[in-house]
Write a structure and sequence with these properties.
Length: 315
């Protein structure tokens, strides 16, 4: 039996996201994402302007005047949520941790999907694939998805995006919408050199090793990257001496935030890291949304959907 406090938390997320889904994103979701192809719907009489190649010659011969085949876009899709549950997701300097923000974003997308009769599946990953929930429809299924993202206790603390993408490609045969929700922060590969005690301050993106997998996965699926970050991962508060512990490696770092030179260097490093992240994802033709735990995510999601909708109309 699920504890009452867990049910309350899940219900709160459902209520918070419901308005955004109902009033804004539900309809945009339908218009932004393409189906698998075209389905035959009916045969109707030819009208001026119809494509000649759409004529159904068998029916035309029987009826002695032209008829055309009408097709509609196949609407049923699969939304796969590939969610990072590594140790760094537990960080949050305000009321909400990155993991909680990830669960809320997943809720918005999942409820938008089921409103359009699409299936939703989940892959939770750290250094390994922690949990796989096969795609299904329905509110109860989405509530289970939210619960797992929020409360799953990972066996590992590190991050390996490659493993998650390889698993996605194995278990998802048909083209899907694959949304990767992560802070894109992790420890570098063993052969990557870095300064000592730099794991927290020099946030290493995962993309050096995952770029090839991201690009190949995006050819099979419609991959979208959603980065969830905290403001103090971008700029340190000026409150004196702080001791940080890296949630993924256990490494401890001490820094005096009154030393403006170090604080400035940290901020500059993070700005560069974000620019590198965006450039890498762009080169793999992957759309990206960056969300912060201290900011309303509604406008950013709305802008993303609006941009994709305009691009689809042009295409």
């Amino acid at each position: 039996m699920i504890p009452r406090e867990i049910l309350k938390k899940i219900r709160q997320i459902e209520l918070r996201t419901n308005r955004l889904v109902t009033e804004t994103l539900g309809g945009q979701y339908h218009s932004v994402f393409k189906g698998q192809g075209m389905n035959f719907e009916e045969v109707r009489e030819y009208q001026p302007g119809d494509e000649v190649r759409a004529i159904d010659w068998n029916v035309t011969a029987r009826m002695n005047h032209p008829f055309v085949k009408k097709f509609v876009e196949e609407r049923e899709l699969t939304l796969m949520l590939v969610v990072d549950v590594s140790g760094s997701g537990l960080f949050g300097s305000g009321a909400q941790s990155k993991r909680e923000l990830a669960a809320e974003i997943a809720s918005v997308l999942a409820f938008s999907a089921i409103r359009n009769n699409d299936k939703v599946g989940v892959i939770l990953f750290s250094e390994e694939v922690e949990k796989y929930i096969p795609p299904k429809k329905g509110r109860r299924h989405v509530l289970r998805v939210i619960r797992e993202i929020l409360f799953h206790e990972p066996k590992k603390q590190g991050t390996n995006l490659n493993v998650a993408l390889e698993f996605l490609n194995r278990v998802t045969a048909h083209r899907a919408i694959a949304v990767v929700v992560s802070d894109f922060i992790g420890t570098p590969a063993p052969n990557v050199k870095r300064a000592p005690k730099a794991s927290l301050l020099l946030n290493e993106t995962l993309l050096q090793s995952a770029f090839v997998s991201l690009r190949s996965t995006n050819k099979r699926h419609d991959v979208i990257a959603i980065q969830v970050i905290d403001r103090y991962e971008m700029e340190l508060p000026s409150i004196g001496r702080l001791v940080f512990k890296d949630a993924e490696t256990g490494e401890v770092v001490e820094i005096n935030t009154n030393e403006l030179r170090k604080v400035k260097a940290f901020a500059e490093r993070q700005v560069k890291s974000q620019a590198d992240l965006l450039r890498t994802l762009r080169s793999a033709n992957i759309d990206t949304i960056q969300l912060r735990t201290d900011q309303d995510y509604g406008p950013a999601l709305g802008k993303f959907f609006e941009t994709r909708e305009k691009r689809r109309r042009r295409g």
